[in-house]
Amino acid sequence: MGQRVAGQLAVSTTVSRMRTTVLLLALVSLLAACGGGGSGGGDGAGSSLETVESTTTERAQEAIPLVAEALGADVVRASRQWQSCMAISWRHEAFATLSAPGGDTPTQLDDVRSALTGAGYDDATQVDDRVTVTRDETTVDVQPTPARGEGTWTVTVRSECADYDGDDLERVENDEGGALDGV
Fold it and tell me: What is the pLDDT of residues 29-48, one digit of tens each?
């Protein structure tokens, strides 16, 4: 009986060590995928916080009016803010709410896609009820949001996730956001 208990204990210890190893490998992979280990701030391409914020804002100032024109919509609200990516990195985002006349949603989505790809964005759409385009490290996502009211659309423009430290980390953690001008 003593050998049976000793054998079970040995298997239990081995399984426990394997679980720990797998969890550590998963954590290292997750950190690497999110740009972990970077010091000095910046996105995965080495851009500064100011560059990421500026690029995202400029892309929003370009994309939101294109979407509004394609939909025949008015921009109701536009803002920008730093957002946490799974509490381990940060991205800059701009948001807009648009009010458009009713229409055939698939046709409206095609019009939005055409406007954005015509402006040099690459189509990255993977879901039928939205348009997603990219340019460099910026993603633009457009979708109807009828839960907010008939004819309501949202546009989100976001940078890739990146690690920041020091003063940059303090700045992104304490960012209260604000209005997005120029749209």
Answer: 555 554 443 334 443 445 79
Angle between helices 49-71 and 166-173 (to 10 degrees): 30
Residue pair 114/70 in contact (Cβ under 8 Å)? The answer is yes
Is the distance from CB of 97 to CB of 77 less than 8 angstroms? Answer: yes
Number of neighbouring beta carbons within 10 Å of residue 154: 17
DSSP category for residue 112: H
Q: Is the Cβ–Cβ distance between 78 and 68 less than 8 Å? A: no
The Cα–Cα gap between 152 and 117 comes to 22
**Bridge partners of residue 121, in order along the sequence:** none
Q: What are phi and psi of 110, to 5 degrees?
A: -65, -40
pLDDT value, residue 70: 97
Cβ contacts of 109 within 8 Å, gap of 6 or more? 129, 130, 131, 142
Q: What is the mean pLDDT of the chain?
A: 85
Cβ atoms of residues 63 and 183 within 8 Å: no
